[in-house]
Amino acid sequence: MAELTAVHEPSPFAVPSRKLGIWMFIVADAATFAALLFAYGYVRVANPDWTHPFAFWPSIANGIVMTVVLLTSSLTVIAAVLAAQAGRKAAALRWLGATMLLGTLFAALHLREWVSMLREGWRPFRNPLGGTPLVGATFFSVTGLHLLHVLVGVIVLAVIALGYRRGRFDAGHLETTGLYWHFVDLVWMFVFPLIYLLNMR
Amino acid sequence: MKRYVVVWLALLAIVAVEVVVTLAHPPTGLLLAGLLLLALIEAGLGLLYFMHLKYERRSFMWSVILAVVIAVVLMDHFWLDAFRLLHQRISAP
Question: How many beta-carbon pairs below 8 A join chains A and B?
Answer without folding.
Answer: 117
